[in-house]
Each structure stands twice: as structure tokens, then as C-alpha cells.
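User: Please run a holo structure prediction.
Assistant: Happy to. Please share the sequence and the ligand.
User: Here you go; the ligand is 0O2.
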Amino acid sequence: MELINWDERLLPYRQAVDELTVKINNMKNEYSTLKLVPPMEEIHGRVKSVSSILDKAARRNIAAEDVFDKLEDIAGIRIICRFVEDIERVANIIRQRNGFDMQVIQEEDYVKNPKPGGYRSYHMTIIYNMITIDGPKNIPCEIQIRTLAMNFWASIEHSLRYKYSGNLPDELQDRLKNCADAAFLLDTEMATIRDDIVEAKMISETKNNLVDNIVKNLHNLYYIAKVEKMSAFNRKFIEIYQNGNLEELRDFSQKLQTMARLYKVEYV
Ligand code: 0O2
């Protein structure tokens, strides 16, 4: 049997993980730049360690030299979301890339159909197309999408499974199952608060935009159009900002906008 050069064989998997991590982070940044709430909260990537590859090969009765053909999660990306409904949004974003830089070859929904132990997560197996110095390479990669609560549970369960070499005592399994249910209840409760969070964020963004608009128009009217009475308007703005409501701020912004339009220094 030939010695496996692990460093060399794992190199394209490292490259795939690095590239995918950057691409998914860029998608997250796109949302933020467009002032939208990104569905992904955290993005992690890892290449399975050699011992983890060999453990899995032994569990699945796969010869060590066949792992690169038979294991599809040597490269792995984990995307953590805040809310359960974001999982499907992220899965859709990945599906949109199908046929471009990747092919989605399998999907497993352990969110709707949790494993008997309580594990919840959405798995997508993809073939990632990339270019190396030796030419194009197609690297399989498992993308796991789950909420913060699901991830918390899975990481605890994973380390306990490791501690007990996969043979968790029945009592511990029952308790972990209860914890998985509690974590899912937390996710469900959080989903109801989501609407409040989004609404609060919209109010604060509207207020920020109005203030930006007012400040720019005040500036343009005073410094460019040289309208002297602007200091009175400025006092009025501070008064409304401190004591008024959003509607008053909106009215004031519209008045100022009309005035700036007349003087042809309107801020758009
Ligand atoms: P590690 O250390 O995370 O790499 P798949 O068909 O591969 O999408 P399937 O059939 O469940 O999914 O395969 P597998 O090989 O059992 O699980 C793939 C990965 O999913 C695991 O990798 C875990 O990361 C995660 N996973 C699956 N089931 C469980 C579970 O019950 N508990 C936890 N904590 N994680 C799970 P590895 O190789 O086990 O580990």
C-alpha cells in the first residue's frame, strides 16, 4: 500500500474551504451594504482532520486510500443563522449558484426530520469547481446550515459523543434529546420576536435617514444657497428631534426638502 501524502491530497480541500468561506462572507457583506438583514450570522470552514477522516472511514468500512472518493465531507462549511426561517433563505442562495461555481448533488433536511438523537441541521452536499495550479478540480463539500441554538446543541453532543466513543449512556441520550427539544422551542420563540426586531430596526433606520436628509439640506441651504434664517430651522430641528415623534420629523424633513428644491440645492 502506497503511503498517502495527506498534506498534498488535502491541499485542494483547504483551497475549496478558503474560497467558499470568502464567497459566503461576501454574500453576507452584500446584504449589509444594501442595508438588509443578512440571513447568515456566522460562517465557519474546516478541513476534516486526518484522525477524523480515518475514524469515519473505519465507521463506514472504507479503506484509507478510498476516502477521497467516498467521503463527501472532508471539506466542510457551516453557516449559522439567527432564525430557523433563515436556513431556507441561505439554502436558496446556495441553490442559485448551482451550475455556476458548484453543483448541488444532495440535500438532507434534518431540521424538518431531526435525527433520533435530536440532531437538527440542513445539509447540502455540493461539488465545488475551482482552478488550481494543476488545472480545474471538482471538490466535494458539505455545507451545514443551522441556527445558533442548533449549533450549540450539536457541538455539546459532538464532544460528549467523542468522550463516550459514540456509546452514550441511555440516560444521557434522553437528557440530550430533551435539550434538543428545548433548543428548538427557543428557536420557535425567537421567531415570534423576529418581527419586533425587524420593525424596531426599520423605525431606527427611517429615523437615521430622515436625520441625514435634514442635516444635508440644512447644510446646503445655509452654506450653498446662503439662506440666513437657517439657524432658526436648525433650532426647530433639534427641538423636534428631542421632543417630537417620527411623523413630526418626517413633516419637517419634507418642508426642508421643498425649500431646498426651490433654491436648487436639494439633497437626494
Ligand atoms: P465532524 O467532526 O463534524 O466532521 P450527510 O449524508 O453526510 O449529509 P449524514 O448522513 O448524517 O449526513 O452523515 P454523517 O456522516 O453521519 O454526518 C455528517 C456530519 O453531520 C457529521 O460529521 C457531523 O458534523 C454532523 N452530524 C450528523 N449527525 C450528527 C449528530 O447526531 N450529532 C452531531 N453533533 N453532529 C452530527 P462527522 O464526521 O460526524 O464529524
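The helical segments are 6-33, 50-59, 67-70, 84-96, 148-163, 170-224, 230-243, 246-262.
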